[in-house]
Amino acid sequence: MQPQPDDPPDHSHPRDPWRTHYAQRAQGMLASEVRALFAVASRPEIVSLAGGMPNIAALPLDDMAALMSDLVARRGTVALQYGAAQGDAGLRESICAVMAREGIADARADDVVVTAGSQQALDLVTRVFIDPGDTVVTEAPTYVTALNTFAAFQARVEHVPLDREGVIPEALAAVLARLRSEGRPPKLFYTVPTFQNPAGVTLSPARRQQVIDICRRAGVLVLEDNPYGLLHFDGEPMRALRADDPDVVYLGSFSKTLAPGLRVGWALAPTAVKDKLVLAAESAVLSPSPLAQMTVETYLRTQPWEDQLKVFREMYRERRDALLDALHQYMSPGIGWNTPGGGFFVWVTLPAGLDAQAMLPRAIGTRVAYVPGTGFYADSNGRHEMRLSYCYPTPDRIREGVRRLAEVIREEITLHEAFGPIPRRTVRGPQAPGPELP
Amino acid sequence: MQPQPDDPPDHSHPRDPWRTHYAQRAQGMLASEVRALFAVASRPEIVSLAGGMPNIAALPLDDMAALMSDLVARRGTVALQYGAAQGDAGLRESICAVMAREGIADARADDVVVTAGSQQALDLVTRVFIDPGDTVVTEAPTYVTALNTFAAFQARVEHVPLDREGVIPEALAAVLARLRSEGRPPKLFYTVPTFQNPAGVTLSPARRQQVIDICRRAGVLVLEDNPYGLLHFDGEPMRALRADDPDVVYLGSFSKTLAPGLRVGWALAPTAVKDKLVLAAESAVLSPSPLAQMTVETYLRTQPWEDQLKVFREMYRERRDALLDALHQYMSPGIGWNTPGGGFFVWVTLPAGLDAQAMLPRAIGTRVAYVPGTGFYADSNGRHEMRLSYCYPTPDRIREGVRRLAEVIREEITLHEAFGPIPRRTVRGPQAPGPELP
């Protein structure tokens, strides 16, 4: 018999007295074994090319300390008090100035909602738009925690393939048409168009207007997630999708341009959507931290933040170059990768038949970690793919990590040639490290 | 015809291009006109007895500034980095020591989840347990933003009345039995047992075990929300419900004992529930702010926090006394109130026929604000009730506010005697100020 919610707590299952009480959305909330491996990967002898931690050692910490001390001493009764659910008005003005660097000229501070990192903005947008069974379209591969958020609201995820110029417009149009013909028109197209996580690719300028037009014609809301846009290695920032379509909902973050520990991100949305997001934010967290918001606002107003961005860009470019050089130097033929123009990630494709997930324990034994591709797909794809991050280790460590990884892959190819493919096993639950791991 | 999700954005409704796309849960997300009044109430000439802001001017801000400066300068690469979704291990240990003051002797740091304020803990518990249509039982009246959270997850709320000793056990048993007989056994009983928001009452020791037993027999999870427990005006802290039942899910907060601007709260839950909460937290916000968590952990470890609690308790007791004295001095016969033993709030009952919501604009015109009782009920009750807060204004301002309020009520009684009851109007949306207003 199915347990009923009014059964008394069941101590014959001592590990879970409330197992009969969970919501349907909680059924899929499982931690995978793959995830547990990443805890091991944080040991210092292991070169982790797995995590997505920015290298905030490059920040002037003494200046940040002085800024915060002054803020608390002089404006502590505001900074340490409750704030408004929509966020600090001064910070929302500054955020508009930041977005202007990506071509968003018409943003109004009143249409910005400050959130506890852009992850919360993603959560709030999903909460406001997605009923159980609704369809969300994403790139394939896509940001792993976005998949978790969509799953938490019981969305069905459909993928559109990427190539080296980003999502393929013809494929997007075909997926939207198919879903419409199946009677389940999607509500959202979630995209990381610039320096994508995990694939490192950027939607080309030629494709941007096409993507906007395709979604507009299909009545699909474009949800543009852009945490890496200002970490470009060449020229000027890419023009955001939102710059050319005010109906786009845009998500931004200070986690990569300043510091993730502050947990400050935002959404820019059409006014009526913003109103819903504010009410959803209030029931979710009451308000973002005024202290964190005023820290960011003061930083943007008083510190040379554009110079600091330049420091970050040069540091990450040097690390990307170290990774690419090492891939060229060490990797066997038949292994492919791309050249990201910014951000944190390179996407690596192994020869068909290799299984990056099955290989991970051996890699960790060889003191190198990466994220298997499977975590970035809602379906069973990505087995012979992996994400390599160059954001956190030093260039020397990156080179050593790639050398170790190449060795593991070579052995795997040899094994595969001798014994054929490894039997596949389905893994449930989040399959990438939390961002807190190096 | 019903708009379909695949309709293109509808600019004939220029205020909402995505109005056809919202989730069902977003339909009820409306800001009420009553809410808008509270923005006016924050003007300095108005004595606000409406908000729930703690008086953090009583904190040693220079010490807090020094603490944070040292933290960022010495441990900034950790404090400003991503953290674990469950929260900082050191802080979780400290939280267990804080809970021990309320009789919770068996809490393990591994069963604590740190959240962005206890509001987020409430949101996560609701997310993990509540499917649309599930029933949640609460006290009547109850915390307004809990009602918003339950509404955001499409729960049906059923109330159990309070008296001056807290929720009435016989009434609780009767409601649970009725709901079971109606085929909708509730999943949660949400309670603020100590210095309740909004009613200021405390569940008596004699009733505590009864409430636990009733819920246990009915298979209902007790969700104990306890932000005010350490702000008691006499004797020792009340023993938490969780102290006598490890299956209770307990929510705590540093917003009232330290500072709400840090946004640090927590949940203590049975291990299996905690596992679900951590996964839900990760998809909601990735992690709570390490900076905020390390600030709290350092504060608890290095500052005389128990002395500071005493400062808060004495200050709030003086303000409670000012409020009660003024009520005695100014209020007309037929008006009732209780004497809270701690916390921030007094609940006032007007003579039958008076309408506290209809009276609010006149009160604000007379430069005093309160929260009408209706906001704290999911049904249409509370018309002749109101919440008065004594946490934020000085004792002199409190007395002046009550004097003004008594004058408004006297006029209202005169009008009511002359013209009879005021026609009622239904108000949708949140009907209490956000906590950020004084």
UniProtKB/TrEMBL annotation, chains A, B:
Required co-factor?
pyridoxal 5'-phosphate
Q: Which SUPFAM superfamilies match?
A: PLP-dependent transferases (SSF53383)
The reply to whether Transferase figures as a keyword in the UniProt entry is: yes
Q: Which Pfam families match?
A: Aminotran_1_2
Domain named Aminotransferase class I/classII large: residues: 70-405
State the Gene Ontology terms under molecular function. transaminase activity
Keyword list (alphabetical) reads:
Aminotransferase, Pyridoxal phosphate, Transferase
The family database entries (PANTHER family) matched by this protein are listed as: AMINOTRANSFERASE, KYNURENINE_ALPHA-AMINOADIPATE AMINOTRANSFERASE, MITOCHONDRIAL
Question: Know the name of this protein?
Answer: PLP-dependent aminotransferase family protein
Task: Specify the species.
Answer: Streptomyces gamaensis
Q: What is the lineage of its organism?
A: Bacteria, Bacillati, Actinomycetota, Actinomycetes, Kitasatosporales
